[in-house]
Amino acid sequence: MGFIFGFGYGIIENKKVKKMGFNKIVDKTWQIIIKIFCVLFVFSFSYIILGAVFNRAVYSYVPLFLIGFIIPFFVLLFSLYKFAFSASDFFKKHFKLILLSSALLMFVVQLIFINILRFTPQFDLETIYNGGITWAEGGKFTEYDSSTCHSDYFYIFPNNLGALCLFAGLFKAANFFGLTDYFFVASVFNAVLFAGTFIITALISKRLFGINSAVILIAIFLITPPFYFIAPVFYTDSLSLIFPVASIYLFLIGKDTKSVPLKLLFFILSAIIIALGGLIKMTVLIAFIAAVIYLLVTSRWRSLIAYAVIGAVVLVACFGGFDRYMYATHLDREKAETMNTPIYYWLDLGVHGQGTYNNDIYWLSRNTEDPEERKELLKADIKASLDELNIDGVINLFSAKLARAFGDGTFALSDFLDDSPKKASVIHDYITYDGEYYLTYKTWCTAVFFAALVLMLFSVKAVKKHKELLIFLGAIFGIMLFLMFWEINSRYITTFIPFIFISASAGIKELTKTVDKLIVKKT
């Protein structure tokens, strides 16, 4: 009996040892992959930053002038971190007050600028804005038509139906309270969303990297000029800003919660927020993918299965339910299948010129009523363009596109702010494309943003200690890969700017450690 027991125990222990050995191999493999990713990340974004500074075919920056702007902001943030470190007790005691006061300051300034920066929404923004008004006031949003907005817009571009519904609900609520200044209502709502984004982003930084890093994150927000003017730019880029950070904040809480029911609750809430954000802007889903990959590389198998399954179910239910509602109640599915723009349209835009909007390609996508023929036309055009470019041309194209995507610290707010402003002001001389001082304003904005990007690069040194950084760096890398192949615009990265700032708040900590070590070595 003793022999049998001993033999059986030996087999079990041997299995455990084998399992432990297998886990070690898996962990080692993931560690190698993470290191490769970090190297690739630093190389890619170093290349992108240098390309944006020195590639004058993309942006007309004067390199020395721009670098001269970047250095003071870099020194400012570094000095502030050192001060926050020396006065950490003060910041710990008053952090909530500092955070709420900063959020309130930005909110109030945004409110002040709403009337000053009023403009006439056109094209895509006009469609979701005026379509929302029409629907809220009892009409059919498909009846709205203008010189810059086709009545069949939502058949051609159904990707903006989520934002349309958001505005319709918001304006109906405003009507209930007797509010009919819809521009002001939409702007205030956008300002509230931004305030929420600001607070949640700082809380994530505090949770992961401590008070001092969170103070730096707050400072980066405060010295980023476009965020004071963002309220009236209530398009999908800014409307979706809160969803990735809110979802990941809930995910982080759920991940660290020991109670299984609470963990599942936080995962469900995280998935719901991601799904709602995805209805407004599809790239929000990159945050969910990044969280799943994080769970995979850290071998959190139970959480991985739970979050992936919950997310998949919620996304299918949300998108499926929304699709069924819209086409059963407001739109004709057969007409939609005929008129919907195929995904190849945006891919085709991405391989012509510098990857920006091209009117000729738009009309090519509308060249025929047959959806299959439309796809084939676009696919053929993509192939022809790539054949013409060859390998060097493709590399140059990708370089130019990514420099454009990450090289404009104004986040292209003037795509909207210069659309028939209601009244001219001194502010317009700075923030609109044809403004007298726009280049100075743009250089300032880009210098602040590049300082944050450089700090973000240092954050890879913290990945070993703070694996959660892989979520933010992974999402940033994900949007970079996406934009390599998609139509390009510098405002398309807006949704993930909070992730860049979170990473920068970790990077400042690592930069300070590096500088301190160098000083100690020299002395």
Polypeptide structure, described:
The chain is mostly helical. 75% of the residues lie in helices and 0% in strands. The protein contains 22 helices and no strands. It has helices spanning 2-54, 63-86, 88-116, 123-136, 153-156, 161-176, 182-209, 211-222, 236-239, 242-256, 260-280, 285-297, 301-329, 333-339, 344-349, 359-365, 371-406, 414-417, 428-431, 438-458, 469-485, 497-522. Helix 6 packs across helix 7 (182-209) and helix 7 (182-209) runs antiparallel to helix 8. The longest helix has 53 residues, at 2-54. The termini are far apart.
Give me a quick take on this structure:
Helix content is 75%, strand content 0%.
SSE diagram, text form:
Layout: H1 2-54, H2 63-86, H3 88-116, H4 123-136, H5 153-156, H6 161-176, H7 182-209, H8 211-222, H9 236-239, H10 242-256, H11 260-280, H12 285-297, H13 301-329, H14 333-339, H15 344-349, H16 359-365, H17 371-406, H18 414-417, H19 428-431, H20 438-458, H21 469-485, H22 497-522
Helix pairs in contact: 1-17, 1-20, 2-3, 2-8, 2-20, 2-22, 3-7, 3-8, 4-6, 6-7, 6-11, 7-8, 7-10, 7-22, 8-22, 10-11, 10-12, 11-13, 12-13, 12-21, 17-21, 20-22, 21-22
